[in-house]
Amino acid sequence: MSEVVIKVEKLSKIYRLGQVGTGTLSHDLNKWWYKILGKDDPYSKISQINDRTKQNNSNYVYALKDVSFQLNKGDVLGIIGKNGAGKSTLLKLISRITSPTYGSIKAKGKIASLLEIGTGMHQEMTARENIFLNGSILGMTKSEISSKFDEIIDFSGCKMYVDTPVKRFSSGMRVRLGFAVAAFLNPDILIVDEVLAVGDAEFQKKAISKIKNINSNEGRTILFVSHNLASVKTICNKGLVINNGQLDFMGNSNDAIDRYVNLSFKKSNFDLSNLSYNKFIKINDLKIISDSLIDLRTSFIIHNDFNVLTEDIELIIRYDLYNIQNIHVFRQEISIYNSSITEKGNYRSELIIPSKFLNKGNYFINIDFIDFEKKSLLNIQNALYFEIHSHLSDENISKRDVNNSILNPSLENSIDFKK
Amino acid sequence: MKKWDINISSKNSFFNLDITELWKYKDLIFMFVKRDVITIYKQTILGPIWFVIQPIMTMLIYIFVFGNIANISTDGLPHSLFYLSGIILWNYFSECFTQISETFTQNTEIFSKVYFPRLVIPFSKLFSSSIKLFIQFILFLIFFFYYKLSLDIIDPSIWILLTPYLIVLLSGLGLGFGLIFTSLTSKYRDLKFLLQFGIQLLMFSTPIIYPLSSLDGDLLFLMKLNPLSHIIESFKFSFLGKGFLSFNGIIYSSIFMILIVFLGVFIFTKTEKSFIDSI
């Protein structure tokens, strides 16, 4: 089981920012000229590290820089990182959709990718025809598809519509069909990118168990990209964290998740440099404190360390929590004046969000420092972001158990029983 | 230790055409051909009959405009046969050319998600155009046999046997030009605007609506530089007995075809590596 099946060495990819137009022609000619002379690409030296939040000065960016790793047969690698960190670029390079600027990838056996399932399906063709088309696009031969045709149809659960044009299918059914074809690909190395985000819960469960199955029964190597850390934790044995296009961590999946959580928590701290000077309040530190990945069963603390710069104010801190649909979930006001006047000096406020209170999802908090007359002294919109993940043991939820409510409290209750 | 099956590297060889890999994907070529053929006339009543109606309509227009109004010579051949032979050959070439020249722009979605040898698409377009040609050729044969057997006013020769080779030449030229065009337009799309115009110009400089025999002097020399001229004229000569069959011409067209195919494949394989970054 220790045979190396994929080896990535010093992989880099440079992208040009901005639009293609007359301006890019001179750069192309310049590159081409350097290539003829046998020199390195002149633009690689001025290319920047891939951090989407920073201003770019050079128009060239390293989407990936010097990424090296290797995988053994049977490994399931979870690739995690923030949006735009370079995860998809890495997968695109491995699945040969585009070629690297520097470095190399070596692999044994057949690589198949599910970067987006159902690729190349033709609206006008029937499900049957599309299975053959899609299968051959993904690299199967006609006889392979014929021999697995019945299994594919069964797995997709679209038996009734096998001779109906795909344009009559719902989008979910198309995904099922696409995934069913891909699930029977039998590659030696399978690349999966966020496919599980679509489809209903029943199908997601089916897909996850299929992926596990492919791995455990057939010893395939899988590269899996997902923002769902819980499914990375259940499926993967190895984890790779990409940050700003560079390899940040490679090791076992639990360590990788911890590492990623740390990284993103740093980010979820409030960036003090964004704040202009305020004569009433100076923020020293504003962050979320938690022991681990926040899930439904962990509590966490909103920590707010600030100085009051003037006397004679009656200060109230107002926390407003919104979910990602901009629904106002709650407001909490904390008065910090005793004997009617807030003194100058350093204050530390902690707001504890209990476990089993908010449901899973993304939230943000606006913080407003107001005085007694409700006049705003310092208002920070979108001060903190956080995500509550589903708890690991809740992962194998069946369809009817999905709870999309805003709150997920565990209320005190009692039952009276009379015969 | 087993050696690596797949080796992706930033460095690439000068000419990287992997024929064995392309062969492995022959089923995919077949599937694409099938898709093109069966989907083109879906939700039409006449279906594949349109393959035949199109050239007949064009033929009727040509007979009316070029034959009757402009009175352009047809070498004494029946108008319908003369135009039809030109039309089906020209349609084949221009279809190969335009379809293949859209390889990158039309398949962005699929190319950005799945890997397969990109040459699969041009080859599948070549084959689906050939199927169309085959059906239209049968139409031509019906006209041909009608004029030969019932009227006997045409004079075919043994050179009919050369037809498959002429088709190969046409395919090669369509493929080569198409590959060059699609590669050149993948990043800078300026040339795309010239394509339609270029094809029209090329058609008028190929003896489709007039015979080569109606020209002389410098103009004739220029026409002979067009590799398509020799192919069309040879076809007309072998089936209809009037035309211009020259071996030097055929050899010239063959060499031209081989060079253009090599150039096309060369540019295409260079472009396919990273075109997805520049669309």
Any descriptors?
heterodimer; A: 419 residues; alpha/beta; Rossmann fold; Coagulation Factor XIII, Chain A, domain 1; 2 domains; 6-stranded mixed sheet; 17 strands; 32% strand; globular; B: 279 residues; mainly alpha; 12 helices
Task: Describe, in plain words, how this protein is organized in 3D.
Chain A is of the alpha/beta class and 419 residues long. Helix content of chain A is 25%, strand content 32%. Chain A has eight helices and 17 strands. A six-stranded mixed sheet of chain A has the order 6-7-8-4-9-10, with helices on both faces. A four-stranded mixed sheet of chain A has the order 2-3-1-5, with helices on one face. A four-stranded antiparallel sheet of chain A has the order 14-13-16-17, with no helix packed on it. In chain A, α3 (127-137) packs across α4 (142-156), α3 (127-137) crosses α5 and α4 packs across α5. Chain A starts with a strand and ends in a 31-residue tail after the last strand. The model of chain A has no long low-confidence stretch (mean pLDDT 79). Chain B is mostly helical. Chain B is built from twelve helices and one strand; from the N terminus they run βαααααααααααα. Chain A binds chain B through residues 3, 7, 15-16, 20, 25, 28, 92-111, 113, 115-116, 119-120, 122, 124-125, 129, 132-133, 136-142, 165, and chain B through 1-2, 4-10, 12, 25, 27-28, 30-32, 34-35, 38-39, 42-43, 109-116, 187-188, 273-274, 276-278.
